[in-house]
Design a protein that fits this description.
The chain has eleven helices and 17 strands. It has two domains: 326 residues, 3-Layer(aba) Sandwich (Alkaline Phosphatase, subunit A), CATH 3.40.720.10; 102 residues, 2-Layer Sandwich (Arylsulfatase, C-terminal domain). The strands form four sheets. The protein has an eight-stranded mixed beta sheet with strand order 5-4-6-1-7-9-2-10, sandwiched between helices. Strands 12-13-14-17 form a four-stranded antiparallel beta sheet, with helices on one face. Strands 8-3-11 form a three-stranded mixed beta sheet. The chain is α/β, with parallel strands linked by helices. The protein is 26% helix and 17% strand. The termini are far apart.
């Protein structure tokens, strides 16, 4: 088999808040996709914020290894070695690399460092998602299908198509031509709806937040953004199938990190770093392992995507990659890939350095500062919980959670004498990881935001 096409369909801030992961929101397109492919039940991003998480996924290294300590663009962070980006690797082996919609690895005013051979969006400010982005994607897939039919070779030049959706990111971008301001109560940047008109009477709050009308309405607004996201993704999946590209295309559906609520994004909780990851591949790829509606239980990481793609397209694995190919796990050659996964945060505007190690059952979080969370979240839920002391709490420098007995991560067990062996084991694992990856967290001095003094 010739090298397959690759479609990376990714969105902002969705976590696992979709129907295939059991959330009470109808996402029929993603449910159908899950039933056709493979769903990874416990996948984690390397970071709980946009730029660092996407950079880690697409370079195969932790954010601190590639210099992406915060957001690119206005905050000035850049990838130390852009040649590590997946797009450059795919360019080297003959793929046509195409971007549609948003990315968050470089400043959107200059996408050239990413190396895409084609940008589908036609607005002056590319690298962002608009309603018409999906129209561009449909036309591109039609073009590829017609080209293959004319040449008689469905694998003439394989393509990598990255499609970045903004939904369900809280709205922070005014688009007057769409009647959209910057109201953060809305979980869409491309479609207007009035959160006050949503029916939240029978909506449950998130398990980590109080059961109050304002919070229930905020959760229902999240679900509206997720439904919009599912509609957009469904159009892409429909086009792939109806243009006859299913049998030659690997499709990946994921998001950058968790949902934008207190206790989610900008924290190292499972609500902050847990992400959906679903994949579907042609029957001849990996012995048909990426098909059939299977659910994979063991923990995996976004860092595993890069080596997985190298494996599936028959390319040598770059030596810098931190993750492992998912192929042995999917095909049953191994029972698990990882004993633990690591996650991190340094900046998101504010400096709040965190590092975590998570096993199947336990999680240890290290905090550079003994108070937190410091970073506020957008949206109407935040001032409610802020007024009751949710932020800026005395947390100490370490937190230890038993995720089987305390899945909401509400009870810090770090001072529990019975947990000493577990805490010591996790500390050793984290120490080894920090030393091996040369993490500045150890020394307590962090790179300055470009143009500002270093912080401690």
């Amino acid at each position: 088999m010739n090298r397959p096409n690759i479609v990376l369909l990714h969105c902002h801030d969705a976590g696992r808040a979709v129907q295939p992961y059991g959330w009470p929101v109808a996402t029929p397109n993603l449910q159908r996709f899950a039933e056709q492919g493979v769903l990874f039940r416990k996948c984690f991003a390397a970071a709980p914020t946009c730029g660092p998480s996407r950079t880690a996924m697409l370079t195969g290294q932790y954010p601190h290894q590639v210099g992406m300590y915060g957001l690119p663009g206005a905050q000035g962070w850049t990838i130390d070695d852009i040649d590590k980006h997946l797009v450059h690797q795919l360019n080297r082996v003959g793929y046509q690399t195409v971007l549609a919609g948003c990315q968050h690895e470089v400043d959107h005013h200059d996408l050239s460092p990413l190396g895409y051979s084609r940008i589908l969006d036609t607005r002056p400010q590319c690298g962002e998602f608009y309603q018409e982005t999906i129209d561009h994607v449909e036309r591109y897939l039609a073009e590829r299908s017609q080209s293959a039919a004319a040449s008689g070779d469905t694998h003439d030049t394989p393509f990598f198509l990255s499609i970045g959706l903004d939904e369900p990111h809280r709205n922070n971008l005014a688009r007057p031509e769409l009647g959209i301001g910057t109201e953060s109560a809305r979980f869409s940047k491309t479609r207007y709806y009035d959160p006050e008109r949503l029916d939240a009477r029978y909506t449950a709050p998130l398990a980590t937040l109080p059961d109050l009308p304002e919070i229930r309405r905020d959760v229902e607004s999240l679900y509206e953004g997720v439904r919009i996201m599912d509609e957009y993704m469904g159009r892409v999946l429909y086009a792939i199938g109806h243009y006859g590209l299913d049998d030659s295309t690997i499709v990946i559906v994921t998001t950058d990190h968790g949902i934008e609520f207190p206790g989610g994004k900008k924290t190292l909780s499972d609500y902050g770093t847990g992400v959906m990851l679903m994949m579907r591949a042609p029957a001849l790829v990996a012995d048909g392992g990426f098909a059939g509606g299977r659910v994979i239980e063991p923990i995996v990481s976004h860092l595993d995507l890069y080596p997985t793609l190298m494996d599936l397209i028959g390319c040598e694995r770059p030596e810098w990659l931190e993750g492992e190919s998912l192929v042995p796990l999917v095909t049953g050659r191994v029972a698990a890939l990882h004993d633990e996964v690591f996650t991190e945060q340094t900046y998101h505007g504010t400096l709040e350095p965190l590092r975590a190690v998570r096993t199947e059952r336990y999680k240890l979080i290290r905090r550079h500062l003994p108070t937190g969370p410091l970073m506020r979240h957008d949206g109407p839920s935040t001032p409610i919980v802020d007024a009751h002391g949710w932020y800026d709490r005395e947390t100490g420098h370490e937190e230890l959670f038993d995720l089987y007995r305390d899945p909401q991560e509400a009870c810090n067990r770090i001072t529990d004498p019975s947990m000493v062996p577990i805490a010591d084991d996790l500390r050793e694992r984290m120490d080894r990881w920090m030393a091996r990856t040369d993490d500045c967290f150890v020394g307590g001095e962090f790179p300055a935001v470009p143009g500002r003094p270093a912080q401690q």
